[in-house]
């Protein structure tokens, strides 16, 4: 039997109280005359049931009974057996069914009630627990003392049963139904206080678990059912398959000896486990084996990249994906007996690997890939730099053409499967031409191609950009064949520097078209070589009255970064705005005004006009910028892509149709320039970075 560990200490306190006659609780009546019955003190409190309770006062030998509060609300317990020590002291034995509360003395002069309640030291104890082996749902009986004070029975892993759910409860016994989540171990009785008294059982409560006898079939196709036999299977909450796939929908027979469960598609080969309602796992004694696709065949046996391969067999509905090496094919159709899959363009694996939902794999029989067939090169003899026509079959698979001795491979993507045209590099020589397909296969021309040396200039080096008046230096071979240099819009160069077979120096005309243009080298024989180049420089200002930031008077009212400068070496026309610093991410702004100050919008339409600004990027390419136009129609922004260094000033054009809501990423376009009545100015689009650039002459200009 278990007893409260503080019981000995309680008796010691009582003994001290009796010896010293102290710590008695005061009462109603005061000692008045010798004939009056007066209660001065009583004790001990807290007391032990079955122990003595002493009353001190005057004429107490006349007390006829002592009434205690009962354990149940409203009940009382009366004691008439009183030990009279003398007229000043009486003693009674506290009954076992006495409860806490004020005590009443029955006297001929009337009832006398204690001022303070009697309290008890109640040692909760467990004498027995039965049965010690049981299953969830059965009743556990706990016997002991003061079990009426218990508010919770706690099983292993804090599985609690509250007192409102007890089957029965009294001072010497309580009964509780074992919850589904209960596990084997000792139980705890708790009085449920904030700092609770907790009594542990000596006995271990053995919770019966389900047993796993066997299952069938052992080899099963995912998606089908298996039957698991055992005992107490009603305690099973789910079945755990390989791959940690848990199925909690099971069918239980009447006597709880068999459950039926559907094998999930993702189940992997592994030992099955039963998951109990308490969360424990009961492991089986053998592995479940999942069925794999079988009897595989492919059609066609030679397949073209990008076309359909048909795989036939059995249980193909178990296939989750198909890989060609490391590349996954696109499944277009799938049934139990057939799969249609698109062969990836870059695939070159000789087998397709079927991957099931359970991650098992199986390879198809080997197959081959269609390769292009080259039937002719026309002409078979030509000059380097000329066009070559290639004919054959399945030529749409070719992605590269490699000419003998050529410095670079020519990339192609033929739209026809029977022919395509490719330019022979100017440095190509005679020999076999090689072709590389989309999946990396290399084939050769059936005969050699005869290539004669080109009679046109070959450019090996040219600057990416130049500005009007600048000397443009071109390097290469056979540049001595060049008769004239034509800039875009048929602007012919008139001034040259050195002219030799390997070097051609030409001054860019002042009226050369600006921007990304095409430069043409015309030979004495009339042949033409084109090369892209950027001519930097600014667009002329059509109407200065439409300039709204010139930094020569039409300045910024506010801005966080940059400043106005006037370095003659950098100036385009007087003052300019300069940014030359590291910019943080987020909101970074430069120059701003509002209220249409110096903003001429007369005749400006969204469809026909743009904002232009002249820029000179001195550092690397900038991050994206944003221009803002805000007014009564809303808040509109245009995203300006990063601006590059072109070796001088050039003009950036921002069509007004680029201004959209939602910070420039919306769908609504700026409707009316005349309603720009609030902020207008320049900021970054949010990225951080170092910027070194100049800006001038921000203006409206008609572009259509």
Description:
With 704 residues, this protein is mostly beta strands. The chain has seven domains: 7-113, Immunoglobulin-like, CATH 2.60.40; 125-207, Immunoglobulin-like (Sandwich), CATH 2.60.40.10; 211-290, Immunoglobulins (Immunoglobulin-like); 294-369, Immunoglobulin-like; 373-452, Immunoglobulin-like, CATH 2.60.40; 458-535, Immunoglobulins (Immunoglobulin-like, Sandwich), CATH 2.60.40; 544-702, Jelly Rolls (Sandwich), CATH 2.60.120.430. 2% of the residues lie in helices and 46% in strands. It is built from one helix and 65 strands. Strands 56, 57, 58, 60, 63 and 65 form a six-stranded antiparallel sheet that branches. 29% of the residues are buried.
Global geometry: elongated
- The total strand number stands at 65
Low-confidence segments: 1-32
Mean pLDDT: 90
Category from helices, strands and their pairing: mainly beta
| CATH class designation of the largest domain | Mainly Beta
């Amino acid at each position: 039997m278990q007893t409260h560990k503080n019981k000995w200490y309680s008796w010691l306190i009582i003994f001290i109280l009796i010896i010293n006659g102290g710590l008695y609780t005061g009462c109603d009546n005061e000692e008045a005359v010798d004939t009056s019955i007066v209660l001065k003190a009583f004790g001990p409190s807290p007391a032990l049931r079955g122990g003595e309770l002493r009353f001190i006062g005057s004429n107490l030998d006349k007390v006829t009974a002592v009434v205690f509060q009962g354990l149940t609300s409203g009940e009382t317990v009366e004691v008439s057996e009183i030990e009279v020590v003398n007229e000043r002291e009486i003693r009674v034995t506290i009954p076992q069914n006495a409860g806490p509360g004020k005590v009443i003395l029955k006297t001929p002069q009337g009832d006398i009630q204690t001022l303070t309640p009697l309290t008890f030291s109640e040692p909760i104890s467990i004498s027995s627990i039965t049965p010690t082996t049981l299953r969830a749902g059965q009743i556990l009986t706990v016997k002991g003392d003061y079990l009426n004070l218990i508010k919770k029975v706690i099983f292993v892993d804090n599985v609690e049963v509250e007192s409102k759910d007890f089957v029965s409860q009294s001072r010497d016994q309580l009964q509780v139904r074992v919850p589904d989540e209960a596990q084997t171990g000792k139980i705890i009785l708790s009085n449920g206080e904030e700092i609770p008294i907790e009594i542990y059982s000596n006995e271990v409560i053995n919770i019966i678990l389900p047993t796993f006898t066997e299952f069938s079939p052992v080899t099963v196709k995912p998606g089908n059912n298996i039957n698991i036999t055992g005992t107490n299977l009603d305690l099973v909450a789910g079945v755990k398959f390989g791959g940690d796939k848990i199925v909690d929908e099971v069918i239980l027979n009447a006597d709880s000896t068999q459950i039926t469960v559907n094998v999930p598609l993702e189940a992997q080969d592994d030992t099955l486990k039963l998951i109990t309602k308490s969360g424990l796992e009961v492991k089986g004694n053998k592995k479940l084996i999942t069925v794999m696709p079988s009897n595989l065949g492919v059609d066609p046996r030679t397949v073209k990249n990008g076309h359909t391969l048909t795989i036939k067999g059995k249980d193909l509905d178990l296939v989750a994906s198909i890989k060609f090496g490391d590349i996954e094919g696109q499944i277009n159709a799938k049934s139990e007996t057939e799969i249609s899959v698109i062969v990836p363009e870059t695939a070159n694996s000789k087998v397709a690997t079927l991957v099931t939902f359970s991650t098992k794999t199986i390879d198809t029989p080997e197959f081959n890939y269609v390769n292009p067939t080259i039937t002719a090169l026309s002409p078979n003899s030509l000059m380097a730099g000329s066009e070559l026509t290639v004919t054959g079959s399945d030529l749409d698979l070719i992605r590269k053409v490699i000419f003998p001795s050529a410095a670079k491979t020519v990339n192609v993507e033929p739209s026809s499967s029977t022919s395509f045209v490719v330019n022979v590099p100017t440095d190509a020589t005679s020999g076999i031409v090689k072709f590389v397909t989309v999946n990396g296969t290399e084939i050769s021309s059936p005969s050699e191609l005869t290539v004669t040396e080109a009679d046109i200039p070959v450019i090996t080096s040219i600057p990416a950009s130049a500005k009007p008046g600048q000397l443009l230096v071109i390097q290469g071979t056979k540049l001595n064949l060049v008769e004239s240099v034509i800039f875009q819009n048929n602007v012919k160069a008139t001034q040259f520097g050195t002219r030799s077979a390997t070097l051609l120096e030409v001054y860019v005309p002042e009226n050369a078209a600006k921007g990304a243009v095409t430069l043409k080298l015309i030979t004495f024989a009339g042949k033409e070589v084109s090369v892209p180049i950027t001519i930097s420089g600014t667009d002329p200002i059509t109407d200065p009255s439409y300039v709204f930031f010139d930094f020569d008077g039409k300045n910024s009212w506010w801005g966080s970064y940059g400043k106005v400068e006037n370095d003659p070496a950098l100036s385009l026309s007087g003052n300019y705005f300069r940014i030359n610093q590291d910019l943080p991410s987020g909101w970074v702004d430069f120059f701003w005004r509002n209220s249409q100050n110096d903003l001429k919008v007369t005749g400006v339409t969204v469809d026909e006009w743009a904002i232009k600004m002249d820029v000179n990027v001195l550092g690397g390419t900038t991050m994206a910028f944003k221009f803002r136009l805000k007014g009564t129609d809303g808040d509109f922004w245009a995203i300006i892509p990063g601006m590059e260094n072109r070796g001088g000033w050039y003009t950036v054009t921002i069509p007004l149709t680029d201004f959209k809501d939602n910070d420039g990423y919306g769908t609504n376009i700026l409707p009316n320039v005349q309603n720009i009545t609030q902020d207008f100015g320049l900021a970054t689009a949010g990225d951080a970075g170092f910027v070194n650039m100049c800006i001038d002459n921000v203006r409206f200009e008609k572009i259509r």
